[in-house]
Specification:
- This protein has 374 residues and is of the alpha/beta class.
- The chain is built from nine helices and 15 strands.
- The strands form three sheets. An eleven-stranded mixed beta sheet has the order 1-2-3-5-4-8-9-10-13-12-11, sandwiched between helices. Strands 6-7 form a two-stranded antiparallel sheet.
Length: 374
């Protein structure tokens, strides 16, 4: 704790005046219950917005001055389930407090952090160009002493992360001008598995879902979405962390084709998937004859490992960040419980999805990942 000036040298009255005009005081950086913020990153963002001692926020944030400078990221903390939780929030460069914009929740993987997820996915840079808000929630520590999300396994955290997600949405909507019909969730690995949980539990709040190398497990209480759910999943066939063909020893982790078939049944898709992209190691298929104009898309990466495609070191020309955004941004919540409303035409190979070149000498699918991460 620091004081404005020494009590030993200045009379009390002068001290009070100096403090009033210099706005000095004390600040203790807010900590999560696991204190797992990336310290090197925190040195660049020394402050955080602490909502712990405020009453529950509600209402529309349109018209309010942004507490975060547009084009930057900052941490916010608040209580959820009696636990102090942290979210890293990025506000796009062109944010206007009178214009409703989309909001994306981006969940990190097992043993990772919110700051690392921001760096790995490069989604804050995309948010600046596409004009949406993105949140990187921080998971808690499980019995295995690693961070993660409550997706079922005994060694993972067992806190109410669905309630935490609801609180994030409520708080962000109260502070910023968010389009409530265009809220999306994406995640990697364990964070992808938790995105699957949200698709089952919060389909009335979140419009569409994107998963990369998701570790899906049986959802507690069953998967009971209130409407057909648009969902996309990307997975490598050589993934040894979350095997493409499943891992029965890890809390009945299903193989990906089985998981996709389950969602196709939930969404009442009436036809088999149609392959719309087949180039090199990449195959993409779509279930499009689904109830309520929903669709399911899957990218299979032959030989792909447990990485976020397009991130530095992934050695993939496919950019998962762009692919997920191109898919989820097509959707908004429906006006009724029966059919999702489409913002624009569903993505096709010749429309909004990136194309993949067949020859190594041709340009990559997107710009170099290092350009976006810089």
């Amino acid at each position: 704790m620091r004081s404005c000036i020494s009590f030993l040298k200045v009379p009390l009255f002068a001290l009070i005046l100096l403090c009033l005009f210099s706005a000095c005081g004390t600040r203790t950086p807010a900590q999560t219950e696991n204190q797992l913020q990336d310290q090197s990153h925190m040195q660049q963002v020394p402050t955080s917005i602490n909502l712990v001692h405020q009453t529950a926020l509600s209402g529309n944030g349109c018209g309010k001055v942004s507490p975060i400078t547009p084009g930057t990221s900052e941490n916010i903390t608040f209580l959820s389930g009696g636990i102090e939780r942290l979210v890293r929030l990025h506000i796009p460069t062109d944010y206007k407090r009178t214009v409703e914009i989309p909001f994306v929740l981006n969940f990190h993987g097992h043993s990772s952090t919110a700051a690392k997820q921001e760096t790995m996915t490069g989604m804050s840079q995309l948010a600046n160009s596409a004009n949406f808000i993105v949140a990187y929630p921080q998971g808690t520590i499980g019995l295995d002493r690693h961070t993660g999300w409550n997706t079922g396994p005994w060694n993972y955290p067992h806190v109410n992360d669905v309630a935490f997600t609801k609180s994030i949405i409520t708080n962000v909507e109260s502070m910023f001008c968010v389009n409530p019909d265009r809220i999306y969730a994406v995640g990697f690995s364990n964070g992808g598995g938790f995105t699957n949980v949200l698709a089952c539990k919060l389909s009335n709040t979140i419009a569409a879902f994107g998963i990369v190398s998701g570790g899906m497990h049986p959802v507690a209480g069953g998967c009971t979405p209130t409407r057909p759910v648009p969902i996309i999943e990307l997975h490598g066939t050589a993934d040894k962390v979350v095997p493409y063909r499943g891992n029965p020893k890890n809390d009945a982790e299903p193989d990906i084709p089985q998981w996709l078939a389950h969602w196709a049944a939930l969404d009442k898709c009436s036809s088999q998937p149609q392959v719309f992209l087949q180039q090199g190691r990449y195959m993409a298929e779509r279930w499009s004859s689904c109830a309520g104009n929903a669709s399911i898309v899957h990218y299979r990466i032959t030989g792909g490992t447990h990485v976020w495609p397009g991130s530095i070191g992934s050695h993939e020309t496919l950019d998962a960040t762009d692919v997920l955004w191109n898919f989820v941004s097509n959707y908004r919540l429906p006006s009724s419980s029966s059919s999702p409303m489409i913002v624009k035409e569903p993505p096709t190979q010749n429309n909004v999805l990136p194309t993949i070149t067949a020859t190594p000498a041709a340009p990559p699918i997107v710009k170099n990942a290092q350009d976006r991460a810089s």
